[in-house]
C-alpha cells in the first residue's frame, strides 16, 4: 500500500446486525436453513463492490476487507467484568448464519479478518492507522459512534444504509466535539448498550459543553471541584475513576496484532464461477443473476456449491453492535455471540490446547515401556513407523556440551500412532546406543559394549528419516542436535523445537529447559543428568553409562519432548503466535547452527601481545592503587578493599552486605568515582583490565578448535525476554567497543587469507523503532532527512542551532535519547552526565515536553503491560512481565522500565532476525560466496572473498534495510553502515 491508495474496511459485525433486521425472515427452500442475514449481507456487499467498479460513483477502493468480532469475550472484560454484560443471546435463527456469512465473504474473494481477544473495531482501528501511516485514505463502512474517534483527514465513515459520508464536521455536528474528543465524551456519557458506566447524570450535550470548557477529561476531573452545579460536581468527583475506566473501555486499540498486512488487502476481482456457485448453493436466484451478468459468467454451466452451516465456526458469532443510541427501533441490540452449546462443542485451537494440557497433566510416564534398540531390523521398523505417522521426537546423546567437538554416542526416538489423540497415551520411546564403552576398561581406553547398532548403518537409516521433510522431527533445543548431526553428514529438515515454542508463548514467565517444562506441564520430574553421569571427580561421560540407565534417561528425554509438543503446539495457534514462531524462531535454528559451524579466525599472536599489555597496565594500576591506599593489599579481595575504602579512608556511601562485609560492587565504585574519588576510579579501571585479560586475551586461544583452527561461539535463541540473541563459550557480544582496549581485542578477529571481514551494522535502530512505534513527528522527519538525530534532539530541547553545535550539548542529547529507551531516571542521567539530579530531571521533563508522543508511548505501554501482563514487538513477539503488578515498588518499577524498553529492543532484535533468515538465500541467489559468521546485537559480520566484496556489500545492506518488509512498513527508513577490512575492528 502507498500514498493515494484507498482502503475500505467493512464493519462485518454491524453488517450482520443490520442485514438481519432489515429483511424479513428467509430460509433456504430445500432444507429450511435460515439465510435472511446472509442474503442481506451478500446484497449489501455486492452493492459496495459494484459501486467500487463504477468510477462515476466517486471513491474507488484499491484495498478492501471485512472485519468481524471473533467472540463476545475480549481484553476489555479483564478491565471490567460487566462489560457488555447486559446483552442477550442472539436469536436462534441467526446463530447458524455466522459461519455462512464468513463463507460468503471468502466467496466474494474478500479478506475475512477477526482476532480472538479483540473486537472488530480494534482491528479496524489498527488497519486504519497503518494505512494512514503510509499516506493512504480509509473509508470505514459503518455508522457506529465508537469508530468516530478514528475520523480524520484521511479517515472517514460511510453509512451505507443512508448513503452518508461522515467526516470530522459531521462528527462535531452530531456530538458537539470533533473526533479527537469522542473518547472523552463517551467516557463521560457511558454506553448503556455496551454497559460502559460513564458518569451518572451526564449526557452527550453536557459532556460536549464540559469538554469544550476544560479541553479534555483529565483536566475536567482535576477541576471538578470548581463545577458550579452541585449534583454534577458531586458526580464528577465521586465517579472520576469510573470515567477513567470508561475511557479505557471505549478507546480503540490501534496496535492490535494482525496476521495480514496491508498488502494482503488488495481488492482483487471476483471469481465469477466460484461466487455464482456459492450463491446458487444458497438459492439466492436474483443476486446470482446479477453477479453472473456482471462477471460474464454463464450461470447455467456452473454447478451449485454444497453450502452448509458450520457449528464450530458458528460459535464465533460476532459481537453484534446495535450502533448509535438513536438507531431505528428495528435495529436494537440482540447479543454478542452464539449459544454456549455451540462454543462448548467447538474444536477450536484453544479447546484443543486445553484438552491436551489436561490430558498431559493426568498422564503418566512409564519407563518400563522404553526400548533399547540394539539391532538394525528393529531400528528399521521404528524408522518406518516414523515415516508412516509423519512425526518423531528425536534427541542425541553425546560426550560433550560443545556441539562442534561432541561425539555421537547414541540417539533416542519417541513415536505416537495418532498425534491428534489428546491423551498422547500411545507414545513409545526408545534409545539406540552406538558407541557406549565398557566402564571397567577406562584405564585401557575402553572397548565398545557388545550388541550395539553398527554406527554407519544406523546413521544411514537415521539420515533417511532426519532429511525427509515430510516427517516432522520434534526436539528440545534442537540447534545442538542439528549441529551434531550436520558434522556427521546429516542435515535435519522439517522440525519443531519445544524450547522455542515455549519461548514464543511464555518469554519472561520462566525457564524453557526441558526439566522445567516437564514439571510445569506434565507434572513429571525427569531423571537428572547427574543421576546417570555423576558429579565432580567421579563424573563420567555418557558413553560410560550402562545401557539400562542410558535407555531410561535418553528415551525419557524423547518421550517428554513429544508430550510437551502435544501440549504446547496448539497454544501457538490459540494464542495467535504461530507467525512469530514460524517466521522468527524456527527458521533461525539452521541459520545459527551454520554460523556456529563456520566459526571465526582469531590471531593468537595479537592476543598474546595484548595479554602482555593488559598485564603491564594492570600491574601499573595496582602499584598506583596501593600507593594511594598507603599500604599493600589484595585488590581482588572484596573484604580487604572494603576495609580500605570505608574503614581506613572513610569514603562516603558505605553499606554492608548481609554477611557483614562492605559492599564493593561495580555500582558502588562507579558512584564513588563519579563523585571525584581517585582510588575507586583506579579500582574500576583495574577490574576492567583484568577482566578483559582473563575473559578474552587469555581465554580465547583456549577456544580455538583443534581441527578448524577457528573459534566457534554458541548462540542461544531463548535466553532473553525481548528476543535478543546471546552468545557463550566464548561470549563475543560483551567485548566493549567504546574503549581502546576493547577495540584492540577486536583486531584479533581476522579474515582468512584472500578474504575480508565485512561488518554491517544497523544505525541507531532502536531510536528508529521508537520513532516508528511512538509516532514522533520530529524524529520521523529527522530520520527521513538523514539528519544527525542527537544534534536534532539537542536543537529541539536546548534551542541550539545544529550547525556548529558544541560537542557537549550533543553528548547530553545522545545520553537522553538512549536513556529514555531504557526508562532512565533523573538519578541515573545525573550520574551519567555528571550533573545535579535536579538538572537531569529538568532535561527529562523538557524532553517529554518537546516529544510528547514518547510520554504517551511510555504510559500506554505501562498500561497495556499492567492489563495483559506482557508487551509486544511490532512483529507480535510477546515479552511477559508478570511482576509488573507486584506490591513491591522496586520490583514493579523494574518491570515497568523493562516493559517500556522491550517493544523497542525486541522489535530491533526481530528485524535483525528477519535479515539473518533471508540473508543466506539472497547471497546464494546472487552466486556470492560470502559467509555469515557472527551476530553481535545490531551487527552482522561476514567473511567475503576479496574479489566479491564490492558486490556483497550493497546486497547485505539491501537485505538488512528491507528486513521489516513486507510484514511492517516502517515510518522511518532503516540505515545500515557496511565496511570491509582485514579485521573486525577496522571493519566496524
From TrEMBL:
Reaction(s) catalysed (UniProt annotation): DNA(n) + a 2'-deoxyribonucleoside 5'-triphosphate = DNA(n+1) + diphosphate
Keywords recorded for this protein, A-Z: DNA damage, DNA repair, DNA replication, DNA-binding, DNA-directed DNA polymerase, Exonuclease, Hydrolase, Nuclease, Nucleotidyltransferase, Transferase
Signal peptide: none
Any GO MF annotation of the entry: 5'-3' exonuclease activity
Domain Exonuclease: 390-574
The EC number(s) this enzyme carries: 2.7.7.7
UniProt domain 5'-3' exonuclease: residue ranges: 5-268
Biased composition (Low complexity): 295-317
Region (Disordered): 295-328
Cited Pfam families: 5_3_exonuc (PF01367), 5_3_exonuc_N (PF02739), DNA_pol_A (PF00476), DNA_pol_A_exo1 (PF01612)
Stored SMART domains: 35EXOc (SM00474), 53EXOc (SM00475), EXOIII (SM00479), HhH2 (SM00279), POLAc (SM00482)
Family listed: Belongs to the DNA polymerase type-A family.
Described purpose of this protein according to its UniProt entry: In addition to polymerase activity, this DNA polymerase exhibits 3'-5' and 5'-3' exonuclease activity.
Designated name of the protein: DNA polymerase I
Natural source organism: Pararhizobium mangrovi
Amino acid at each position: 500500500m502507498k500514498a493515494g491508495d484507498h482502503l475500505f474496511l467493512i464493519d462485518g459485525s454491524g453488517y450482520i446486525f443490520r442485514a438481519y433486521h432489515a429483511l424479513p425472515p428467509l430460509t433456504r427452500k430445500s432444507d429450511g436453513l435460515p439465510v435472511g442475514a446472509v442474503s442481506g449481507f451478500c446484497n449489501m456487499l455486492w452493492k459496495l463492490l459494484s459501486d467500487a467498479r463504477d468510477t462515476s460513483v466517486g471513491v474507488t477502493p484499491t484495498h478492501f476487507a471485512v472485519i468481524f468480532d471473533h467472540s463476545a469475550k475480549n481484553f476489555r472484560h479483564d478491565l471490567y467484568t460487566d462489560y457488555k454484560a447486559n446483552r442477550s443471546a442472539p436469536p436462534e435463527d441467526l446463530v447458524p448464519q455466522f459461519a455462512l456469512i464468513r463463507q460468503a465473504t471468502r466467496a466474494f474473494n474478500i479478506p475475512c479478518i477477526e482476532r480472538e481477544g479483540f473486537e472488530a473495531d480494534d482491528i479496524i482501528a489498527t488497519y486504519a492507522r497503518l494505512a494512514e501511516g503510509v499516506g493512504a485514505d480509509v473509508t470505514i463502512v459503518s455508522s457506529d459512534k465508537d469508530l468516530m474517534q478514528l475520523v480524520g483527514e484521511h479517515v472517514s465513515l460511510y453509512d451505507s444504509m443512508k448513503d452518508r459520508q461522515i467526516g470530522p464536521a459531521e462528527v462535531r455536528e452530531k456530538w458537539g466535539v470533533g473526533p479527537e474528543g469522542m473518547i472523552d465524551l463517551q467516557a463521560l456519557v457511558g454506553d448503556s448498550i455496551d454497559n460502559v458506566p460513564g458518569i451518572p447524570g451526564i449526557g452527550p450535550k453536557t459532556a460536549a459543553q464540559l469538554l469544550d470548557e476544560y479541553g479534555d477529561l483529565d483536566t475536567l476531573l482535576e477541576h471538578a471541584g470548581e463545577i458550579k452545579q452541585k449534583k454534577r460536581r458531586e458526580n464528577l468527583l465521586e465517579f472520576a475513576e469510573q470515567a477513567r475506566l470508561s475511557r479505557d473501555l471505549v478507546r480503540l486499540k490501534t496496535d492490535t496484532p494482525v496476521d495480514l498486512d496491508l498488502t494482503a488487502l488488495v481488492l482483487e476481482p471476483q471469481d465469477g464461477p466460484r461466487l455464482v456457485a456459492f450463491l446458487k448453493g444458497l438459492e439466492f436466484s436474483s443476486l446470482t443473476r446479477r453477479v453472473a451478468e456482471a462477471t460474464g459468467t454463464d450461470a447455467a454451466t456452473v454447478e451449485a456449491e454444497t453450502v452448509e452451516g458450520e457449528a464450530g465456526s458458528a460459535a464465533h458469532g460476532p459481537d453484534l453492535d446495535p450502533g448509535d443510541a438513536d438507531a431505528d427501533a428495528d435495529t436494537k441490540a440482540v447479543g454478542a455471540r452464539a449459544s454456549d452449546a455451540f462454543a462448548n462443542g467447538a474444536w477450536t485451537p484453544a479447546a484443543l490446547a486445553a484438552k491436551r494440557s489436561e490430558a498431559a497433566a493426568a498422564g503418566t510416564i512409564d519407563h518400563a515401556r522404553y526400548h533399547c534398540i540394539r539391532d538394525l531390523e528393529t531400528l528399521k521398523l521404528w524408522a518406518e513407523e516414523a515415516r508412516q505417522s509423519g512425526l518423531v521426537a528425536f534427541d542425541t546423546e553425546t560426550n560433550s556440551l560443545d556441539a562442534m567437538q561432541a561425539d555421537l554416542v547414541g540417539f533416542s526416538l519417541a513415536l505416537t500412532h495418532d498425534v491428534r489423540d489428546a491423551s498422547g497415551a500411545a507414545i513409545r520411546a526408545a534409545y539406540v546406543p552406538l558407541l557406549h564403552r565398557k566402564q571397567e576398561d577406562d584405564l585401557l581406553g575402553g572397548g565398545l559394549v557388545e550388541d550395539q547398532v553398527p554406527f554407519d548403518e544406523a546413521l544411514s537409516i537415521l539420515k533417511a528419516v532426519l532429511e525427509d521433510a515430510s516427517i516432522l522431527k520434534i526436539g528440545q533445543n534442537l540447534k545442538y542436535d542439528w549441529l551434531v548431526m550436520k558434522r556427521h553428514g546429516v542435515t535435519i529438515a522439517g522440525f519443531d523445537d519445544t524450547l522455542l515454542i515455549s519461548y514464543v508463548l511464555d518469554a519472561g514467565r520462566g525457564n524453557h529447559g526441558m526439566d522445567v517444562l516437564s514439571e510445569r506441564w506434565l507434572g513429571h520430574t525427569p531423571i537428572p543428568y547427574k543421576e546417570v553421569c555423576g558429579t565432580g571427580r567421579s563424573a563420567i561421560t555418557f558413553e560410560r553409562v550402562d545401557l539400562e540407565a542410558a535407555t531410561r534417561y535418553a528415551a525419557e528425554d524423547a518421550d517428554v519432548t513429544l508430550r510437551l509438543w502435544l501440549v504446547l503446539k496448539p497454544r501457538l495457534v490459540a494464542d495467535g503466535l504461530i507467525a512469530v514462531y514460524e517466521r522468527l524462531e524456527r527458521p533461525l535454528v539452521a541459520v545459527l547452527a551454520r554460523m556456529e559451524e563456520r566459526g571465526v579466525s582469531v590471531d593468537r599472536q595479537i592476543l598474546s601481545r595484548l595479554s602482555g599489555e593488559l598485564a603491564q597496565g594492570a600491574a601499573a594500576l595496582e602499584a598506583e592503587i596501593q600507593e594511594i591506599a598507603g599500604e599493600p593489599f589484595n585488590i581482588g579481595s572484596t573484604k580487604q578493599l572494603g576495609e580500605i575504602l570505608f574503614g581506613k579512608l572513610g569514603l562516603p556511601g558505605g553499606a554492608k552486605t548481609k554477611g557483614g562485609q562492605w559492599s564493593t560492587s561495580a555500582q558502588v565504585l562507579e558512584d564513588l568515582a563519579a563523585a571525584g574519588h581517585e582510588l575507586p576510579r583506579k579500582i574500576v579501571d583495574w577490574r576492567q583490565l583484568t577482566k578483559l585479560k582473563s575473559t578474552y586475551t587469555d581465554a580465547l586461544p583456549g577456544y580455538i578448535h583443534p581441527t578448524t583452527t577457528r573459534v566457534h561461539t554458541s548462540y542461544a535463541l531463548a535466553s532473553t525476554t525481548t528476543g535478543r540473541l546471546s552468545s557463550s563459550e566464548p561470549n563475543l557480544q560483551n567485548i566493549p567497543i567504546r574503549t581502546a582496549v576493547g577495540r584492540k581485542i577486536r583486531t584479533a578477529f581476522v579474515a582468512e587469507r584472500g578474504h575480508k571481514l565485512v561488518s554491517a551494522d544497523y544505525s541507531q535502530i532502536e531510536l528508529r523503532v521508537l520513532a516508528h512505534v511512538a509516532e514522533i513527528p520530529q524524529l520521523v522527519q529527522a530520520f527521513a532527512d538523514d539528519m544527525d538525530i542527537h544534534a536534532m534532539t539537542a536543537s529541539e530541547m536546548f534551542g541550539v542551532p545544529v550547525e556548529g553545535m558544541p560537542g557537549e550539548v550533543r553528548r547530553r542529547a545522545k545520553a537522553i535519547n538512549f536513556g529514555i529507551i531504557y526508562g532512565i531516571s533523573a538519578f541515573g542521567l545525573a550520574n551519567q552526565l555528571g550533573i545535579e539530579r535536579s538538572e537531569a530531571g529538568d532535561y527529562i521533563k523538557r524532553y517529554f515536553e518537546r516529544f510528547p508522543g514518547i510520554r504517551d508511548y511510555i504510559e500506554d505501554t505501562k498500561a497495556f503491560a499492567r492489563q495483559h501482563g506482557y508487551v509486544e514487538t511490532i512483529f507480535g513477539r510477546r515479552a511477559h512481565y508478570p511482576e509488573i503488578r507486584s506490591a513491591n515498588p522496586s520490583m514493579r518499577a523494574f518491570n515497568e522500565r523493562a516493559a517500556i524498553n522491550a517493544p523497542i529492543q525486541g522489535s530491533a532484535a526481530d528485524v535483525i532476525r528477519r535479515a539473518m533468515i533471508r540473508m543466506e538465500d539472497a547471497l546464494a541467489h546472487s552466486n556470492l560466496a560470502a559467509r555469515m559468521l557472527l551476530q553481535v546485537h545490531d551487527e552482522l559480520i561476514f567473511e567475503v572473498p576479496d574479489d566479491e566484496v564490492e558486490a556483497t556489500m550493497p546486497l547485505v545492506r539491501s537485505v538488512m534495510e528491507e528486513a521489516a518488509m513486507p510484514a511492517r512498513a516502517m515510518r522511518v527508513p532503516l540505515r545500515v553502515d557496511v565496511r570491509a577490512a582485514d579485521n573486525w575492528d577496522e571493519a566496524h
